[in-house]
Amino acid sequence: MIARHCIKVATALAPNIAKASTNSFRRVTLIPGDGIGPEISSSVQKIFEAANAPIEWDPVDVTPVKGDDGIFRIPSKCIELMRINKIGLKGPLATPNWQRTSFA
């Protein structure tokens, strides 16, 4: 049932994504996530492919990295791709329990 819903959504979005882009596809940042996230993300990619949605995926890892100042941050590559693509798909993530985590 979920797969059918995803196909309906992907099929409905496909024409809009194509119109919004000057290319024949839209780049989407993919954050697979943790635990079952990568498996779910892979399935979603297959569903969008089956629906012929004009999407090219840019997968990124959002595991926080420790900076020189000792503060953990989201990798700059992820932030950069989200700014460029302006759209992303995120799988389930584990929430870190750190007091000094910065997402800026």
Automatic annotation (TrEMBL):
Domain Isopropylmalate dehydrogenase-like: 28-101
GO MF entries: isocitrate dehydrogenase (NAD+) activity
Membrane-spanning intervals of the chain: none
Highest taxon above the source species: Eukaryota
Tagged with keyword Oxidoreductase: yes
GO cellular component terms listed in the entry, alphabetical order: mitochondrion
One GO term (biological process): isocitrate metabolic process
Main EC class the enzyme belongs to: oxidoreductase
UniProt entry keywords in alphabetical sequence: Oxidoreductase, Tricarboxylic acid cycle
EC number(s) reported in the record: 1.1.1.41
Stated family: Belongs to the isocitrate and isopropylmalate dehydrogenases family.
Protein name (database record): isocitrate dehydrogenase (NAD(+))
Record organism: Brugia malayi (Filarial nematode worm)
